[in-house]
Amino acid sequence: MSELGFGLSLASIPFYVVGFVGNVLVIRIVHKTREMHTPTNYLLASMAISDAITIVLWPLYFFEFAKFVCKVVVLIEISIVVSSITITVLAVERYNALLKPFRTGLRLSEDNIKKRIALIWFVSILICLPEFFLNEWSEYYSTCVGAWRLHMNYPSKIYVVINTILSSYIPLAVVCYCYGSLIWGLYFTNTVCPETDEDRSSEKRKLVTTFLLVTVGFFIANTPTAIFYTGVASGLPVETNSKLYYDVLLVIDFVFVSSFCFNPIIYAFRTKNFREGFRRTISCRKPPQQNEIS
């Protein structure tokens, strides 16, 4: 491992710890608090599970020491796609709830949320299934080769392009459109949460801040990774300067994995009920009767 890789590995430790603890708390709060058993919170818990899996298994990318690791890391990719699709579903749900309140066909409910979550995981597994066959151990490079590597064969390159379109570019476009429309409705057309008093104005500012954080965070975490691997799959001259591209990849991966500790902060702990749930968990208090956070 290079000095840069070692330094970024050490710098990642606080993000791993905060991200893992934060996501486990989200799962525990939703599981233990009956009042938190709502469609939105179930989605957040599902995403917390996928993020926790990613955080636990991510170090395997730095220690690819055996053939079986080449297959195990596919679980990371599945979890990443689950998070990406879940963030997109949350964006669409909030868009419909605030801008299209009478469009009930796409709304999440107690009746369909479990099927939607199962569908998210199924689609994610389906998207990542080819990686089980593409990822192989290379004696020449003494590491895994295949999808999401600097050294990819032609089938892996085709797969990476298709995967980034499905799990990065399309979700990025949908998230930006949904939250961009909400911000436009909040500030410019005044069709979302029209200001009638100070409380509504404060709610409006909080909504805008959350939308901006989500959009910017998702954009910063996913765009560099998608562009980099699309470039590698499209024929960037990796072989001519492999050290430079490896260092760039380390930085991009560091930014990407750091985002998983911010998801519970942005989506959960900015809301009153989750903050109260966190305090109850720490102090071992029983939950009071509350409504949904959304």
TrEMBL record:
Pfam families in the record: 7tm_1
Domain of life: Eukaryota
Alphabetized CDD domains for the sequence: 7tm_classA_rhodopsin-like (cd00637)
Organism, as annotated: Porites evermanni
Membrane topology value: Multi-pass membrane protein
Family statement drawn from the similarity comment of this UniProt entry: Belongs to the G-protein coupled receptor 1 family.
Keyword check for Transmembrane: yes
Protein name: G-protein coupled receptors family 1 profile domain-containing protein
